[in-house]
Amino acid sequence: MSTPTIPSVLFVCVHNAGRSQMAAAFLTHLGGTRVQVRSAGSSPADTVNPAVVEALTEVGIDISAETPKVLTTEAVQASDVVITMGCGDACPYFPGKRYLDWQLEDPAGQGVAAVRPIRDEIERRIRGLLAELGIEPAE
Description:
The structure is a single chain. By secondary structure, the protein is an alpha/beta fold. It has helices at 19-31, 50-57, 73-77, 112-133; strands at 8-13, 36-41, 81-84, 98-101. α1 links the parallel β1 (8-13) and β2 (36-41). The radius of gyration is 14 Å and the shape is globular.
C-alpha cells in the first residue's frame, strides 16, 4: 500500500511581504499538515507588511515571526502548484507544474482597512484551492 503524497503549494509575489504571506498563512491555517506550503518573493522586502500582520491577527492568524524569503529554483521544483501574485515573468517555469496567476491588489503602502478586502479575497481563493486539492479545511 502506498502512502498518499501531500500536495505542495508555492505562493510568489515580488516582495513576499503581503499577498503571498497572507495566502501561505491561510493555507497553513486551513490545510494544516495535509498540504506543504511555501512562499517567496522575486525581490523580497526586509519585513512583512505590518498592516498584513494586523489584518491576519484580526482573524486569529499570527504571522508576526515570518520573514520574506527569496524565490529559488529549488522552491519551484519542489512544488506541485505555483501561484503567482503580480511577479510577472520572475518565476521560473518547469513542465509538469500547475501554475495559477491570482490578480490581487497589492497591499504595499496601504493601511489595515485597505488590506482587509484583499485578505478576505485570498481566504476565499484558498478555500477554493483546498476544495480542488480534495482537502477539507480546518475551522
